[in-house]
């Protein structure tokens, strides 16, 4: 692999892409990218053009030579690729907003990776991802797929179960946790080892090894004081149950608030929905502003405003991951990969999010100490939701969907679920061909 | 054990007792009861007297000689007992009503064996039960404890984990299912084998073996038609999600409605609470009427009205269990006992509700075929709730309580749970000495 | 199934058959057999004729009317059968003797269900059994297969894994244990519950429930005194390691001597081989004598001499099993059936030998309490040997065979195993078509 | 820990020590050793003096300043130590020779970490090691114990189960495998990742990651050609069963020959015992020669002859491990540590030998992909042997010893085991105080 690398970005018109460009520019010496292909769909043509122009200006500004190409022809882009970054959003932000609003209408938390919204997102995204993978098997069988399309854990599980593509799922949550911890313990990145484990958006930091001691309790004390730099800046403030955390011996990621403080979050979401708008709506407005900024022909670097967007460090993580693979760096990163016994009590073939050594052959997960039984039960429950959702998304199996959703703690069951599910599928029918039978029948 | 048997009833003043008397009368030939001791507390003295008089009339009416004794001195009763039936209610129906009302106030389903109410009931009941067991270890170490005090599964787990008493937990749910199935398939009891498995109030019929075929699908078809004699008469009508059940390959007990139709049940409970009253309130009124009937000096048999009470067949099951043990009958009954691998995926030392052969040495559980993974996850989750609740009840450990409640699908979490939990403990402080530290501290 | 039953015996010319006839005669009232088909192969024609004549005399003697038919046409016999008893011996006793002699030649214990001999027997027997099952699927799909062809556990596993036939494996070892226990504790059969668990020829009695107490330690004391009626009469005396048994808390079956006293048994076998002959040779001579007795036209009952043959109670068990199924007796018997979690730590789809309630729908295993870890390890090891041997027998996979044999504690490994294995296959090539490739290649 | 380090060597008079000295000299820059304490017992005084003089010459020769101290007072040495290297041999080589001869006398393979010899060695070594650990808890509670005293896996398990000492077990087997693999694939150490897993002397290389591909099959091909640099030079040549290895998908360590070629090894050992002597006897002669060389006052470096000794790279590994801990190197090394789910199917609290990242906080094991079932069964069996042996060694429990030995594939059972065990204990009574009760009683 000493040739110049070809990198393909599916969903190249995403507002995150400038961070990715910046990451590639910063690693130009260690990661010799020759071509960067931005792929998007018809509807995203304008946005991907804006991104492409900005990318070119950013690269030129640094005096580097990475060729930036834009295309709507995915096969053309994939041919001979070395790395494929998947960051598309099926149905765009409108679909996310619809998910949120439907969930709220039926009294449930609306969220793009969990609950009813997570189900909808998975059902829209997985079929397209599998299509991409079939093309990869043909056109670039040795390429790595770096998935950060949400729901990242379920999408990666679908790829690893149903295709032969070498895939790794990524998320910015552990990256933000790591940076927050660095700040609390006053250490440089790489100076300490944070080990996380769980599922995507359902992880706990299990160890924080620094200079011969485990600093977990120091970090916990800081969090309990309300000083919590581990929480992504786009998440509104909330309170952990203090006694619970004190007793836990591990640091939950911010998304655990859906389980530990479900009612508070429900109320918060309802207030937001009636006020500034749902998270999707806020992001949509933000994106509009971002693209206005990106259009500026004077702009030749990643603008500050992107940091508020929420996906912070996603692309940074992707670039670091590509470099770690390419250079066999054996850095510890936190990725979604096949379980294979890493977390005891989960099937071998499911996908988990765990700290791993990144090699040229892919991730080698660190072993995870057994979880306390109650935490394990939550992980097992949510993994079963995910696995049934993947099955439903691949096969169009409504009963599998329902069996999964019934387990999910943030989903209401009964008549209301039947109705919410029907509405979800109906409103998304353009993106869920696997469920068209439901409406053909009736 | 060829002597005449001594049977002790803790909570002898219960409105159920006449069914128990009837059961003993019907089995007089096979189960030679010499003395029946009805034990109650000061507050229940009047009720236990009424029951005792009725019992004596019933026995005399049949010309039998069982001595009926009433006492408030539990140790006196326990000395040399052969069977101890536990059917008391700590805090009486008022406590149950309080549980229901607090749960509803905080937007949660109110229920005496599950959720916040189940937690409260366990915390009131388990300390007293362990006290009784300590006395049994001293005064009647060979006696069997037949527990049908709710929450029956958790109470039995506490006894088996923390004492040396030989205990079996009982519930009328499987009995009613068996009778309903007999009706559907047109078979006599004992003619077919129904195998159930799960936890107390969380069981599924796994097999219905009759004349060489498994009649499960026949029973399921009937249930899906809305003809469901497996549901206790005291439970108001509700609808199972049809497609879910069709796909399930096993018959859920009625209490599974809390998981499969949570929102419908929540609404139903709220309507009841605003209308005829909560279940506890309805039962309280019913009990009052029952005791008026029991007082009638002409009455010398179990009155028809008792059947509407809800606990139907409880006492019947208890009598049959005593006879099965005494006579080494090896009948298949459905009991709460130590898991020991019966249900794969649960700890050996937890208590499960499973079909078992009843011998003079106690129950020998039938092996349970592996559960589908999603159902297993629900069972594991609820068992963890139960185990943490038992721990909380025994040790007064509030964090254990919270860790358990957070897992429970019918419990809301966050600020609301903190408040609901605090109110629950405060209102029950007379019955929850283990949690007094919470209010001493502050 | 109120018609008159058709029973088929594969290997009808076996010297055991008179016991089977006696068993059917004794159960004539409860098990209405109309036709008894004795099937054998060309080489066994004379013997099956002798048996058939004896059977007819025995039936006539009692004035019953069971039609006895002899055939070499298996399909004719199987058509419409209700029960198929499999008790054939592929390669006859000569094959068994060859197995024993080859094993001994290479310094290994020679045995028909274990080690190299067990491997050879499985590879001869399983292909024929699967052939029979294919015919059963076509000609009598509702019939039960009662297998007591050795190695019974592996043969039953092959049937349950590779066919749709309803099969139960039987062995006389637990029957003899039960009778020995009855003698020690002075109880009638059916009066107590003996629970065994493990694999075929690798079981332990785990519970001996009698009149409200577990008599296991009483039985153990008697065994340690050297008074051991649990050991089949055909097994020469040997000594259990006393301290090991005292500590064990369960009663091992006689075949466990291969693991607990391997060297003693090896020496015993070598002495026998140089003296009176191997077990197979002794049996062969005995059989010759038996058939001389059977020929006697005056003989109209099972002769006493059969009892020394070794397979005592096999056929008795088979008759009782047929009756238990036919009459839905729900008797506790000890059978080889699908594990399904009965013994924790073994795969669901493997076959185990466990005490079960026999119903018209087949066996319902009693749950088995967790084994001590060291015993479990031995069971897991031997089950893996069995599973790999079944795979080798079905697929002709020599590496699977070797992987299995290497695990087996009574097998020597290395050059010697390669040679012993090659000789075994070569000498049995007529009965092991699946391994012919080995000699075609070279 | 920026002070100058104090390193203690228990068994400082070992012939290996010069390699350790060389390792410390080579790492002087990264591992600032101030004091090196060589501890030995009275009987080893002369040898430790010789070693000490040689060490001083070696250090002086390089112009470094590490203070070398000799003492028989262990407590003095341990006080304030940073690293404690345990490499003593309880009973010296004479005990090892005795073990070998007793095993052979009873027809069993004689080996210092396995079978009867492994049991004897564990029972001599573990009590002393626990004594050392008690002293470490008091005198240097923060020190790391690096154990390479055999049987290294069992000794480390004893320490981690029964003390609070931070301990890591080491072996040279994986080091030699890694060097052999480097040679075959033509890569530098550190350039590729070899992942091993199993138990001490029972490991398999599972992955050989080099430049983006797994070179395992390339290495396997070379081994099958008979070119096997992975086998320690002190092990006489033997043949792997070719078809078995081809099928295995992982590379067994040389000690697996005891299981895969047991009979060949038995014969080899018997021939050696009758010829050049047992391994222990050969080593004893070699050691004598080595000490003659060490005495030479001109000698100021590790002599070439040491390489033939067999323990090659042991001390090298120890030095590298100390440096990895001290410098938080996060190098992948292969160590004995607590399982905690690393190998699925083994208890959490047992010790396994697995590739781990070495941090200042100790080893972080890499997750191990599930083993094929037959290999897992062997590992589980041998771990149970080890765990029971540790229990026997700590408690003097003879039945535990026997239960463990009966499982061990290289142990004969029955009368012969009783005798061999009795002789073993009797001959070692000076070193096995825990078993003195056996001879007091009789």
UniProtKB/TrEMBL annotation, chains A, B, C, D:
Superkingdom assignment: Bacteria
UniProt signal peptide: none
Similarity field: Belongs to the glycosyl hydrolase 4 family.
Cofactor: NAD(+)
Keyword line: Glycosidase, Hydrolase, Manganese, Metal-binding, NAD
PANTHER family attached to this UniProt entry: 6-PHOSPHO-BETA-GLUCOSIDASE (PTHR32092:SF5), 6-PHOSPHO-BETA-GLUCOSIDASE-RELATED (PTHR32092)
Textual note on the cofactor: Binds 1 NAD(+) per subunit.
Name used for this protein in its record: 6-phospho-beta-glucosidase
Organism listed in the record: Hafnia psychrotolerans
Chain ranges of the Glycosyl hydrolase family 4 C-terminal domain: 196-411
Keyword flag Manganese: yes
Stored InterPro entries: GlycHydrolase_4_CS (IPR019802), Glyco_hydro_4 (IPR001088), Glyco_hydro_4_C (IPR022616), Lactate_DH/Glyco_Ohase_4_C (IPR015955), NAD(P)-bd_dom_sf (IPR036291)
């Amino acid at each position: 692999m000493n040739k110049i690398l070809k990198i393909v970005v599916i969903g190249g018109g995403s507002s995150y892409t400038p961070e990715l460009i910046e990451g590639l520019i910063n690693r130009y010496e260690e990661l010799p990218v020759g071509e960067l292909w931005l792929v998007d769909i018809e509807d995203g043509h304008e946005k991907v053009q804006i991104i492409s122009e900005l990318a070119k200006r950013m690269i030129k500004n640094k005096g580097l030579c990475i060729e930036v190409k834009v295309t709507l022809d995915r096969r053309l882009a994939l041919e001979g690729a070395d790395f494929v970054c998947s960051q598309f959003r099926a149905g765009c932000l409108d679909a996310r907003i619809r998910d949120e609003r439907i969930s709220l209408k039926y009294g449930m938390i609306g969220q793009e990776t969990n609950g009813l919204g997570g189900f909808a997102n998975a059902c829209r995204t997985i079929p397209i991802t599998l299509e991409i993978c079939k093309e990869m098997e043909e056109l670039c069988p040795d390429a790595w797929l770096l998935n950060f399309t949400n729901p990242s854990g379920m999408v990666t599980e679908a790829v690893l179960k149903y295709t032969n593509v070498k895939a790794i799922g990524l998320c910015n949550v552990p990256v933000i946790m790591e940076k927050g911890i660095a700040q609390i313990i006053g250490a440089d990145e790489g100076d300490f080892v944070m080990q996380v484990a769980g599922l995507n958006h359902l992880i706990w930091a299990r160890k924080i090894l620094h200079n011969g001691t485990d600093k977990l309790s120091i970090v916990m004390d800081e969090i309990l004081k309300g000083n919590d730099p581990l929480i992504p800046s786009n998440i509104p403030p909330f309170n952990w149950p203090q006694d619970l955390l004190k007793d836990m011996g591990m640091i939950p990621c911010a998304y655990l608030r859906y389980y530990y403080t479900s009612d508070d979050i429900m109320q918060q979401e309802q207030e937001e929905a009636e006020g500034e708008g749902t998270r999707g709506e806020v992001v949509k407005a933000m994106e509009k502003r971002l693209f206005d900024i990106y259009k500026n022909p004077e702009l030749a670097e990643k603008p500050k405003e992107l940091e508020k967007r929420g996906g912070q460090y996603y692309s940074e993580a992707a670039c670091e991951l590509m470099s770690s693979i390419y250079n066999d760096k054996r850095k510890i990163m936190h990725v979604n990969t096949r379980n294979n016994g890493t977390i005891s009590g989960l099937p071998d073939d499911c996908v988990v999010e765990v700290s791993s050594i990144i090699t040229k052959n892919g991730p080698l997960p660190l072993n995870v100490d057994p979880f306390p039984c109650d935490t394990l039960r939550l992980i097992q429950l949510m993994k079963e939701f995910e696995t049934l959702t993947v099955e439903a998304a691949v096969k169009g199996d409504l009963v599998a969907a329902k069996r999964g959703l019934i387990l999910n703690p943030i989903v209401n069951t009964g008549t209301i679920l039947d109705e919410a599910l029907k509405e979800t599928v109906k409103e998304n029918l353009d993106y869920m061909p696997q469920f068209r039978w439901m409406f053909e029948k009736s």
